Amino acid sequence: MKVEHGNLTLTSNGKRVTYHNITDQVREFVASTGIKDGICALSSPHTTCSVIFEEFVHDFDWNGDELLQVDLNKVLETWIPRQLTESDYLYPGPKHVAFLQELGAKDPNYPVDPATVLNADAHIKGSLFGSSETLVIKNGELLIGSVGYLYFIDWDQNRERNRTCNMIVMGL
Questions:
Q1: Using the 8-state DSSP alphabet, how is residue 60 labeled?
Q2: What Pfam families does the record point to (predicted)?
Q3: Which domains does the chain have, with CATH numbers?
């Protein structure tokens, strides 16, 4: 059995939910491994991000978002509205804000500005959709059909930043 690791660095826009179509990059990574039969697992180490398998729909809105993604965001917004103030959700509590401010003094990935952690909605969406997908590889190809595509989603809308999608391919 052969095992190959890789990752993608993706930049979130920080203004709205960010969808990255990662299908081509994942296909290229799978091809580069030389593995013909096995599995490919994709995962996010970020608690406000998800990896999903969905249909590519060919139509986009004015922001460049696929219409199915726009519809998904619209539905989710009715169930899990965006957190705009500290009173919208219980999260983050005062102990967590203090922890993040302390962390931010040491790690530039965590700004000291407490408004950047008003993202309970992003955490809930990330929990609901999960952080990973596992796919079958047969004859060197991902078995994702003709319209199946892979997306990395950052649900957090509070700031632009780089995100990581981890990849592992295992097989023969």
A1: B
A2: YjbQ
A3: 2-83+125-171 (2.60.120.460), 85-118 (no CATH)
